[in-house]
Write a structure and sequence with these properties.
This protein is of the alpha+beta class. It has 2 domains: 5-51, Orthogonal Bundle (Helicase, Ruva Protein, domain 3); 58-164, Tetrahydropterin Synthase, Chain A (2-Layer Sandwich), CATH 3.30.479.20. 46% of the residues lie in helices and 20% in strands. Helix 3 (33-51) crosses helix 7. 27% of the residues are buried.
Length: 167
């Protein structure tokens, strides 16, 4: 089947996958971009699981102070290399996560950390389970997994803190 460069370009813009991965997915689906996106998402999940075991000891600390200076947050976001930590994509991910912390007041990083006697639901108390404030159809865990698939390194949140005047 003949796959056009425009189709590959469109799929690549939507998925962030490599050119050959996009082409192969389009060939498998006979040019259907929606089905090709599903194939690329499955491939990305496999890649993400392989990378989760790697050590993420580099990274950045991102800060956010809300207008008026009444709320502030810090997040330590780690990756495998300092090169990746300096990329605009990684910095944007860190900024999005610190804004999430400031806005949604999570108490824990993962749902597994939430104690049984916690009054909040794990989806509200755990940062990784919260819906992303910019796109509620995606959780913070999904956002990080997408970044792992695009960047190609393990990424994890080590810690965060949120401050609010009067608390």
């Amino acid at each position: 089947m003949n796959i056009s460069a425009e189709s590959i370009k469109e799929l690549r813009a939507q998925s962030g996958a490599g050119v050959m991965d996009c082409r192969n997915a389009l060939v498998k689906t006979e040019g259907d971009i929606t089905k090709a996106l599903d194939i690329l998402k499955q491939q990305s999940l496999v890649k993400v699981e392989k990378k989760k075991t790697r050590v993420a000891a580099q990274g950045i600390i991102e800060s956010y102070v809300h207008a008026g200076g009444r709320i502030a947050a810090l997040v330590e976001l780690n990756c495998e290399t300092d090169f990746v930590a300096r990329t605009p994509e990684f910095k944007q991910l860190a900024h999005d996560i610190v804004m999430q912390v400031a806005a949604m007041e999570p108490q824990y990083i993962t749902p597994e950390e939430v104690p049984a006697d916690c009054k909040l639901q794990p989806a509200a108390a755990a940062l990784l389970a919260q819906p992303f404030i910019k796109d509620p159809s995606v959780t913070i865990r999904d956002l990080i997994n997408q970044a792992i698939g695009k960047i190609g390194e393990n990424i994890k949140i080590s810690r965060f803190v949120r401050y609010e005047i009067g608390e």
